[in-house]
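Sat 14:20. Reprocessing the chain from the morning session after the first attempt stalled halfway. Input below, unchanged.
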Amino acid sequence: MVCEAIRSIYNSTARMTTRTRPRIGITMRIELTTDRFYLSRHYSEAVEAGGGLPVHIPLIPDADFLRQTVAGLDGVLLPGSDSDVDPMRYGHDPHPKLGAVHPIKDATDLLVLTEVEERALPLFAICFGMQVLNVSRGGTLIQNIASQWPNAIKHEQGAPRDRHSHNVRLLEESLLAELATRDHAPVNSHHHQAIETLGRELVATAWATDGLVEAVEDPRSDRFVLGVQWHPELGWERDEFARALFDRFVEEAATFADRRARDGVSAGVTA
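Finished this time. Tokens:
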């Protein structure tokens, strides 16, 4: 009953009913104590309700495997993680408050991002996903907000996880401002790291009241790249802005699939 109610939110628009669902790859997480791959249900449910077909990508950091996997996708979602990006990947020594580092997660996401960039695939990056995107473009991270960012607000809100805990200011005429239909939005917050310096081809488009970057976009006209520091997959059923983010991402993936079909390129053929 709950799933049916969720799906009805999007099905009423019927925007995807005449299309094959675009395939959205979502990289998984790893539980080191049990060696299990896993992923929160909310990412896949939000993608499915928006008209996409979620495809879970296991953390196998093999370039050939990931090249063939990404070749069959129409978009990629990089989710959050309970780990931190290894600071050695952006030339910093580890801060005393650095969290757990999962090398297999870093390596897989970075290889996926290489394929995304080469193919100009639509990309939606959330929390850790936005941070690893920034690192992949040569940017750096604040390893621990509380000890490295003066006058920081609380960015680790705890439970309930879908509660809006602070506002973000949105850049005028950005994609985010367009989707929010205003210049600010309330968001949840579950992170102790943040962007320090921006990577290549990334523009900050949202900020917390303490000045931390809360979202990035790629300004190039030939691709869709959006990263947000909050978690729109939590509570998206009741949050119009969060639904709009997933809706637009899936629409971009469907457009990518249509364009590829017109060009006569099979989704299952590798370059």
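The mean pLDDT is 92.
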